[in-house]
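Reminder to self: tokens first, then the designed residues, so the page reads top to bottom the way the pipeline ran.
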């Protein structure tokens, strides 16, 4: 998969993409991530990328020309399955969306800033608008990093048996059951006996029960 990220702050992605699973996925060739600084696509003398909004009001709006120039350049090079805009008024990101996106070949992710982008970009280029939750971030970059992480770990071959996505919370609309490792007793705090029993059927049953119990208490909405 190829992911192109359009942003005013490419440096924000240095951390999240250079470690752990995202790093390995790139090294193994499962994904290539390309960062595009929208300021490089501004043609005016001050490299302006934002302007006052028509009709007045506080807050700057990201201008249409630099974004359109960057999108047009990329679209001329390859076909994109989705052009995604990260915005707090987008569709709430859920596991199902990441699952769908993970089977694509080329996706573009546009990060908004200030008051957001000129509406004409959304009307004419964007195929999907995504929010990562009901709160406001300073920009779309951290949200885009979250989206990319959730997608890339689902690309076949990225995870191994130890990190398998199949047993993740949400994959079957259930939260994960509690997990334990050695020692079996710490400060008198005991690991549930069934997990030490060596009985795979009993263990599986316990995990299913605990997953359901946890989901009922913490996220009853998932069971509706
Ligand atoms: Cl995608 N962008 C911003 N700026 N804030 C958010 C968000 C996105 N999702 C939740 N809050």
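Designed residues (224 positions):
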């Amino acid at each position: 998969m190829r992911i192109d990220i359009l942003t005013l702050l490419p440096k924000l992605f240095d951390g999240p993409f250079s470690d752990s699973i995202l790093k390995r996925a790139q090294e193994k060739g499962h994904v290539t991530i390309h960062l595009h600084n929208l300021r490089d696509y501004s043609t005016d003398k001050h490299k302006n990328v934002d302007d006052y909004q028509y009709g007045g009001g506080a807050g700057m709006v990201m201008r249409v020309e630099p974004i359109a120039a960057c999108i047009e350049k990329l679209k001329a090079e390859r076909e994109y399955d989705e052009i995604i805009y990260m915005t707090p008024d987008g569709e709430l990101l859920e596991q199902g969306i990441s699952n769908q996106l993970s089977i694509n070949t080329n996706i573009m992710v546009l990060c908004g800033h200030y008051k957001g982008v000129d509406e004409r970009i959304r009307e004419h280029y964007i195929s999907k608008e995504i929010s990562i939750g009901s709160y406001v971030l300073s920009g779309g970059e951290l949200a885009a990093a979250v989206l990319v992480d959730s997608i890339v770990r689902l690309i076949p071959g990225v995870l191994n048996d130890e990190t398998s996505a199949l047993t993740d919370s949400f994959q079957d609309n259930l939260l994960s059951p509690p997990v334990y490792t050695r020692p079996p007793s710490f400060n008198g705090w005991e690991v549930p006996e069934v997990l030490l029993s060596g009985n795979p059927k009993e263990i599986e049953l316990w995990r299913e029960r605990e997953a359901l119990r946890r989901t009922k208490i913490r996220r009853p909405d998932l069971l509706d």
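The chain is about 30% helix and 20% strand.
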